[in-house]
Amino acid sequence: MGDSDTIFLKRFSMVIAVLVAITVVIIVIAVNTTGGVDPNANPSRLTLADKRTLPVGAVRTELSAADLAAAAPVEPVDPADIDGGAVYAQVCQACHMTGAAGAPVPGTDLWAERAMKGLEQLAANAINGINAMPAKGGRMDLSDAEVTAAVEHMLGQ
Ligand code: HEC
To answer: N or C: more exposed end of the chain, with fewer CB within 10 A?
Structure first.
């Protein structure tokens, strides 16, 4: 090794030593002024990290009360609660009050003849339709119980 190499190595090591010393000083200053690196020091950073690393899907093992309420089957309507008179007025009356298309008008002899069939048969025919009488009076959104209640109302007239 020549002299110039030795001098170079000496100076180079000195430069490295000075840089290392500066680095250590900077680390010491940084740790002392910030209190070190505490991952819990910034909770929002933590929650963000949690959010970003959440699995895409998760299995729910618990149901809230609201979930249970939403999943509960619809309470069946008590037939006794159905207002047959209201159904009749809304849907059936249009034909059955005027006798349109030969609809038997409750309270007439023509109706009395029909009434002989009894509630069960009349209700079945009203639900399924008979001749010019459309099924459920054309209101397919009515339940069988609602149509039956309307027939009961007609029989009571
Ligand atoms: C579009 C007119 C129309 C509407 C609306 C209508 N009906 Fe009728 N309905 C008729 C006609 C016409 C007949 C007679 C059918 C026949 O010739 O047997 C009839 C007959 C009936 C009968 C007698 C069935 C039988 O077995 O003799 C019942 C009961 C009846 N309707 C109930 C209802 C009820 C309940 C509603 C309402 C939900 C309703 N109708 C709505 C036209 C209608």
So the answer is: N
- CA of 100 from ligand 1 middle (Å) equals 10
Sequence-distant (6+) residues with CB within 8 A of 55 are none
d(CA 48, CA 28): 29
Q: Is the entire prediction scored with pTM above 0.90? A: no
**Do residues 136 and 149 touch, judged by C-beta distance below 8 A?**
no
Phi-psi region of 136 (alpha: psi -120 to 50; beta: other; left: phi over 0): left
Tell me the pLDDT tens digit for each residue of 139-153: 999 999 999 999 999
Average pLDDT value for the chain: 87
Mutate to test the pocket of ligand 1, among 96, 131, 147, 152 (most ligand atoms within 8 A of CB): 96
